[in-house]
Structures are given as structure tokens and as C-alpha cells.
User: Fold this.
Amino acid sequence: MTEARDFLKKISPYKPGRPIEEVARVLGLKGEIIKLASNENPLGPSPLAVQALQKALIESNLYPDDSCFYLKKKLAERMGVEPGQIIVGNGSVEILPLITLAFLDPEHSAVASQSAFIWFKIATQIAAGELIEVPMRDYRHDLRAMLKATKKNTRLLYIANPNNPTGTIVTRAEVEDFFENVPEDVLVVMDEAYFEYIDDPDYPDSLRYLREGRNILILRTFSKIYGLAGVRLGYGMARPEVIASLSKLRVSFNVNLLSQVAGMAALDDHEHVKKSRAMNEAGKKYLYEAYRTLGFFYLPTYANFIFVDLGKDSQVVFESLQKRGIITRTIKEYGFPHALRITIGNEEQNRRLIRALEEIL
Assistant:
């Protein structure tokens, strides 16, 4: 029997939120099950994207445009960059191992926060690189501590902004100070999956650093506010030479025809984005008050989910909610054994969640 390489033994596969079909089957549940585990848009997919998908289905027998020419062109115009500064992926998460394979090996290291998006760790392990994990401060990235942790062999530094699973951000001033001091040979990977939900003036303009020629790679996705998580589409933006290196590792036709069509249409669906933001803001206000009343500690969020500390083993509450047809997400692997990450749903879903928590307590 051929044995796999030793470094693979260190990798713990990513565990996504449980799908509705699995929970229904395993628990034998009847009736509506709501999923508040994976930060999907409760408003559903962009209507313009759905229309485009319906028209494009008849062409599913054809290979997609491998270069994603028109999608890149549209993204470039929207973001104020050049098409050669964009790479498109099967979700933005597909791009993370391309980054580590391009810039890491066993002789080089990457820096990340201990409680940041866990795919930073997995991607680094895929490249057999060293991961330097830095404790968060007040549930936020400690950028100064991360800078101090960099070594001569450090090539990557990861920042999720907002961070998953805490929903917190680093501010414009903090990032400005950070870029004044980060070594030029360190590529800063800024994951902005929840970017479209934010209107805070203190949120940094990462694209400005890219336009200035800084060594930054910005990741964004269509999975969240555009409601296309099932379509799988994300993109990265960086200097042309960085994108050229990543493109050499990309699998041919990695972004299918339907994904490209849906993405282009979703970019024009400003009404859907507006409604999604409004629903999210209303959900925040309701849930903040409800969690306070229940006596839970929570973190104000810049995303479409809320970090909620229950003060007890989260697995017990997680399982009790599942039995009531509500799927949430434990985050023990991030170092939070008493907390759940719970997506902000629509009004009915949020009220059902709170009623269930009241019953459980």
C-alpha cells in the first residue's frame, strides 16, 4: 500500500456547518429546519443571478471560459484595478492553498491569529509551512503582536477582516500603522468575505493599498451578501506578478459557466445588496437585545453572524437546538468551548431561535 506524505497526518479537515438534509435524516426531524450555521444569506440568492442562471442552463454542455474574461473585466471596472490583478476561484477558499503553495514550503513561515478563520491553518499545512499563531486581544487581531511574531523566513501574514468567528474588525488607523511597518517581502492576505455588509468609516480601504503597489492580496466572495454560497464563486486581487504565480497552480476550468454568469449578474443587483444589509441590521438589533435579556455575552458584529458565549458547554445547547430544528455552529476548534457562532437570519428565524433558547434555559 502506498503511504501518503507524513505532513498530511497533521491536517485536520475543515468541518462545515451540518446541512439541513443530514440533520433531518440523522435526527428524524419533520417540518421546517432552519440553518444558522454557515452564514448564508437568509434573503436567498440574488434574483438577477437566478434569472441569469436559468437562461444559462441550456449551455451547460459547453466548457466555461477558462480565463473568466468577462467576469474579471467587470470586477476590475468595479474595483478600480486591472483584470491582470484578479484571480477567480471556486469560492475564495479555493485560492488560499494556491497562495501557500506559491509562497510557502517547509523552510518558510506564515503568521495568523490563533482564533482566525481556520482555513489559514489548513492552507499553511497543505504547503508544509510553519504557522506562527498569535493570541488575539479583546477578540480582535493584534496587528502589532503579529508584526513582532514575524521572522526572517516569514512570507505570509493572514488577516480576516471581519474575522470569522468573532465578527470583529481591525480599524483603518490600525491597518495604516501596520502597513508602515510590515516587511516588504511579506504578502499580507486580507480576507474580506463579509466586506459588503460594512458601512463603518473606520473600516480600512484595502484596495487603496493595492493601488499603491503594496504587497497585499485581498480575498472576497459571492457566497455571503449575494447569496451564492451553493454556486461557489470568489476572487482575489493582488499585484500582477502575484496573480500570475497563483494562476500557474489553478486547475483548468475551476470556475464553471454557471458561476461566472451568476457572478456577473449579481454584481448589478444593488437592490438585493441593499435589502440584505437592511435585514442584517434589523436582525442585529433584535438579537443583541434578546441575548442581553438571556444573560449571554456576545460580540457586536460587522458580519452576518454573532459570536455568543453561553457560559456553559456549547455542545449541549448546540444539540438541544438541533433537536428543535435549528442548526448552529460550535467553535471549539477556534478555542471557544462555551460559544456558538450563529448566523443572523430573517425575522421569523431569529424569533424562533430565541424562543428555542428560552425553552432550553
The mean pLDDT is 96. Residues 230 and 324 are 25 Å apart (CA to CA). The first strand starts at residue 34 and ends at 35. The chain has 13 helices and 13 strands.
